[in-house]
Amino acid sequence: MGLVGVQENGNGEMGLSGLPLGSKNKYRRMNSELTEDYDDASHQQHQEDRNNSTRKYVLACAVFASLNSVLLGYDVGVMSGAIIFIQEDLKITEVQEEVLVGILSIVSLFGSLAGGRTSDAIGRKWTMALAAVIFQIGAVIMTLAPSFEVLMIGRLLAGIGIGFGVMIAPVYIAEISPTIARGSLTSFPEVFINFGILLGYVSNYAFSGLPAHINWRIMLAVGILPSVFIGFALFVIPESPRWLVIQNRVEEARSVLQKTNDNEKEVEERLAEIQLAAGTAEENLEEKAVWRELLSPSPSVCRMLVTGFGIQCFQQITGIDATVYYSPEIFKDAGVDGNTNLLAATVAVGVTKTLFILVAIFLIDKLGRKPLLYVSTIGMTICLFSLGLSLSLLGQGQVGIALSILSVCGNVAFFSVGIGPICWVLTTEIFPLRLRSQAAALGAVGNRVCSGVVAMSFLSVSRAISVAGVFFIFSAISSLAVLFVYTCVPETKGKSLEQIELLFKDKHEWQVSEVEMGDAENLVQKEQGSEVEMGDAENLVQKE
């Protein structure tokens, strides 16, 4: 009867219930504020849960995609010890030993070349599956090989499978990772290569006591196990959202991005960038075939090729595969006696390599790519020169042995902290979407060719100029790598794949980007802070 409209007038008038009407309004306002606070807390908790779920999912995808890299690492590590017993069992010559060790890297270039076109046709995910199947067949043939010729057939197949895997894993991880963690996650394949090398060294040491006609077969057979886990991984990991967009499967791409990014706004931004890049790719594809563009590149693509192909070649011609494949030979030259002692020393190398790759994961997205590359290449130059000195001047005494082992461990440590993982990160970051898979394949080819040349020539060259002389050459090449990083590698930390592409449009932007990156980050933080303050102010006005 009009009583509903009665309110306190500010002088403490009472309502029919005997309570000040203003008090009811105060209680009502307090309840409203509590409800809003509860809603904010609930939303924040929901966002944190989503962030944790997203991080775990992306991490799982990166781990499963990197399992192929374990195969390469295991093969590299296990062959360094298995070759001792293969030589004893099958009575192969030193030249056959070099060919057997190095042919895998040479043959893997065919897998890498085919991998680019294959991944564009059937997708990144199923290319990884194909790589595992081919390697598995090769590993079985090697395990059962009765002669050098059959062993080589298995080695050729394993090399093709490894070529596919080495090329596709970094591309897949770069395309599925959020920008803020892309560097760390894209370095996972290198982490798993190192883990595989360590497993290979441990396998050598564990089975070295068995008869010579059995132990190397068991060593090689153990390498089949990781490919079994890859089969399980195919039921867990999604297809690359960028490949899905190219196939006009936009809703599937959005679904994948929702699982790998923290919020809807970022999902839509990433999807829009990918669609724009894919649209440009389709237009350019009509104008110029991918390989034709790579063979007659524009100035910006030429700069990308120099950076990507160059960093891949420098990773190998500084001698890392010689150090890993032939570490028993190096330690024997330093004065270590007995197969068991030689293989135990290689385990120390494997442990060092694996531990320091973990350091790279934590630092790559914090310090950036270039600072770690400087530390890596300068450190490797010093360690390689030190190894040459210890082998040439200190002879085979205890001091010489200790310094040689320390230099080898130091070399692999500096390699793992920088150029080892970062060369794969850069190769997958710098190329535009239309060229990414095949340009990455070209970089992997350069990497594998250089690896094969080093592995197949190390023993012969070291017989001609001594092991120490070879490492003096590697040291000189490593010093050139420092200069290459300074002149040809831009900083890509904190940029989306599409933003990195713009860096190469104008080489001047490299220096500007590196100088202003800190200022830009501060500006973004200030803008985010002002947005937060503005949001708080708006909420306060609404409450009042």
TrEMBL record:
Compartment(s) where it occurs, according to its Swiss-Prot or TrEMBL record: Membrane
Residues covered by the Major facilitator superfamily (MFS) profile domain: 61-493
Transmembrane segment boundaries: 57-87, 99-116, 128-146, 152-173, 185-202, 214-237, 342-364, 371-395, 401-427, 465-489
Membrane topology reported for the UniProt record: Multi-pass membrane protein
Protein name: Polyol transporter 4
Signal peptide feature range: none
One MF annotation (Gene Ontology) recorded for this entry: carbohydrate:proton symporter activity
Gene Ontology cellular component annotations, sorted alphabetically: membrane
Family: Belongs to the major facilitator superfamily. Sugar transporter (TC 2.A.1.1) family.
Superkingdom field: Eukaryota
Record keywords, A-Z: Coiled coil, Membrane, Sugar transport, Symport, Transmembrane, Transmembrane helix, Transport
Primary location recorded for the protein, binned into one broad class: membrane
PROSITE patterns registered for this protein in UniProt: MFS, SUGAR_TRANSPORT_1, SUGAR_TRANSPORT_2
Coiled coil start-end: 250-284
CDD domains: MFS_PLT (cd17437)
Source species taxonomy: Eukaryota, Viridiplantae, Streptophyta, Embryophyta, Tracheophyta
Pfam families associated with the record: Sugar_tr
